[in-house]
């Protein structure tokens, strides 16, 4: 029976992927690409590959990221989970200030505790990053204060620039380092009103992802001082991240920096138009309103299975990819989806969204 269940699940996933690939209009997300399409779109394939990440496109990528973030150095990692563990280990032992909704708690299997012996202190449980007052009020010393920009599991929310400056200053007052969990830092600068280098300049270490937002095949970078970089290279090896060649990841990340990063501000600007139109659907609610980035949460008063089925049927029958990935929310009777506004959604007007939404709900 377990094998049969998995087979059915795989078939459903393949059906959804096929439906979205055939859609002429996509509101949330991107058209899925095949492996051949992903590689065919990369530049630099005639160059020499990297050798254990010490040269070639990996070294080029590290230099590029350090330049964008205004740091002395940056180190490529195969995963963000690995990069974040090294960043927290560099800060020292003992306690670290984390948010219970942060990525380190929600999506990394508590690696900071299991692998490095660190212990979390929660400055707040509110669905936002901690305030300066909350950091100053911590009951015990912490080696590192982690700030997630944006906080995905709170709804892709960001602090104001002044609040961010204040909380990093409070961390320093407490004698703690500041680490930015910036997997989605690329889209945070419009709301913060400052560039990537200014944001990273507030921290001692900054992690960025290459597959989130930029559309890379995978990988991450940890940026900071030259001392951090030397430490990171040693511990990357110890964590098993000294991969022989990682040029496909590096080339796809460079492509994302060249092609996608310049377009991200336009996605952020268009997100409020999409969010407002979605909020006008019967029983719908969006958060935050307006969105802080090009991603936000959408709630609808219907079962998640019914919404996912309607999304699939709309894609197959009308070639319209509306909003998918629904899951039943904590609020009874409501389902939740994450909406991502990227290039395919830029030509959607508010009327387009409302019309597609009506067609979507009619299929329930």
TrEMBL record:
InterPro entries: ArAA_b-elim_lyase/Thr_aldolase, PyrdxlP-dep_Trfase, PyrdxlP-dep_Trfase_major, PyrdxlP-dep_Trfase_small. The keyword Glycoprotein does not apply. Gene3D superfamilies: Aspartate Aminotransferase, domain 1, Type I PLP-dependent aspartate aminotransferase-like (Major domain). Residues 50-289 form the Aromatic amino acid beta-eliminating lyase/threonine aldolase domain. It holds the Pfam family Beta_elim_lyase. Its cofactor is pyridoxal 5'-phosphate. Transmembrane segments: none annotated. It comes from the Bacteria. Keywords: Pyridoxal phosphate. Belongs to the threonine aldolase family. This is Threonine aldolase.
